[in-house]
Amino acid sequence: MQRGLRDKAKTGEAIREAAASLFFEHGYEATSLRSVAAAVGIQVGSLYNHINGKDELLTEIMVTVMDELEASVHTSVAEAGDSAVARLKAGLDSHIRYHAQHASEVFVGNSELRSLKDADRKAVLSRRRQYELFIRGLVEAAAEEVGADLLNAKLQTYAVLALGMHVSSWYRPRDGMPLEQVVDVYTRMSMRQIGIPIRPDATSSAEGPGRRQQHQQTPTGTSPEFSALRQVSHQLGERGPCAGDGGRERIG
To answer: Dihedral sign, CA of 242, 246, 247, 251?
Structure first.
């Protein structure tokens, strides 16, 4: 009995992964359940032991993304300690890392939102708003802790979220660029736009007011963040940060 349940769960996961890959490559409308079944290695009729239809499969992919993303970020924040800056840094790290490691699912989640049924779309959007508010709370708490002057907490939260999601539009493990480097650079850029610059070796605290002032007086071309970003850009080469496989643009 237990083995049967495990096998069913494993097959269900394989179906979602295959569907996400096919939706990403060909689009939701152009992907048939027959092609999903073939990718998994089962008969198309067997799919209905796991799903009721293609629309339910799309909803499951999007809900799974939110489940995994929230769990990852919440766990990282909880383990970061009491410092608001450390909690924000941990949350951003997890946010960026997830989008880098789940590019196909993230792309499908954003590009195919319109394909969901109304009720499912509203449910997914509600989850996203809750996530946005959680990140905004981290941003506001960290800014208050160090005395940073937020221009607009809502818009700056949008910028932080978008910067993290952008990684999914270009990052590929096979390109040879270390994920840790990408996460570190994007995290520091996100913190700086909020007004909380951190040292490259910082683990839990922002720079003090004096150090922040020194950073602001440092020429852009010699700042640690600029140097790291320049290195990432050099490794990207002519491929560019917004080009997907085969030149297909993928915005997360």
So the answer is: negative
